[in-house]
Amino acid sequence: MPEPVPPVVSIVMPCYNAAAHLPQSVGSVQAQTLADWELIAVDDGSSDGTLAWLQAQTDARIHVYAQPNRGVSAARNAGLAGARGHYLAFLDADDTWAPGFLQKMLAALDARPDAVLAYCGWQRTGLADDRAQPFVPPDYENADKAEVLFSGCRWPIHAAMAKRKVVLAAGGFDATLTNAEDYALWLRVATTAPIVRVPEVLAFYHFHGGAQASSNRGRAALHHLQAQQRYLAEHPDFVAELGSRKARRLMLGELLDRGYACYWQDDLAAARQIFRVVMKHGHGTLADWRRMLPAWLPESWHRRLLGLRRQSRT
Hints:
The protein has 314 residues and is an alpha/beta fold. It has helices spanning 22-30, 50-55, 72-82, 101-110, 145-151, 164-169, 181-190, 217-234, 236-242, 244-264, 268-280, 286-292, 299-313; strands at residues 9-15, 37-44, 62-67, 87-90, 96-97, 117-125, 160-163, 195-206. The longest helix has 21 residues, at 244-264. The chain is globular, with a radius of gyration of 21 Å.
């Protein structure tokens, strides 16, 4: 009996206690204008009705795997192991795509046979501030690509499509990272060959009241630093080209920026965690250190100090 023809695209979806979101996320896959796909949904030890909902689906293109809870990276790697498509896309169980996502991303890659990855614009929903504005990233395929990609994650995981063989060659996802695991993978993939931009908003990140990995901003910032450190250790040629001083500035400057973002948005616990790491590395100006030093005080003292400073300005 002949082997079944593999789909063009394999979609990997890690699922953990996502029963409330699956109809919307899986529905956005089934609404794609490109129908030649398989969806590999990996239940990562859910305690709600996630697995039952997935197993009840009758669409033959949906394949369900179940494992004990091991985290999002391990779940994605389990999905990778079962993927058969020439291309890979990743969609978390609480996010969605526009109907033309697969078709437009595939067309962009087909038009550039030497490209290993396509990326598009995205929008955050469920927010009431400027972060909810749609965003189309610039074209990163230029002489500064490696440096720009190293300095920060340039697209969310569901705003990209990549060649499966390249993702596998890069080793998949680092299961020791619970944040920045997608950044670590894209950095290893996108610096090896050309990438291509699709200048449309096709991916949607949904904020909701449940637990989301992005909510722990201190951990996210430190895992981002960890991913950068590992990349430098694995790519000495990149360090030589960039220069160790500039590499340090890119890493710790990004970390300090994240610390300030937490600080100004009153996420003091995360800011303190980040500031202490920045100071341990001896980074920052005198003005930065004046703001960071109270992070070594007990948090209640730090908050009291900030309150006194605010009162003195009024």
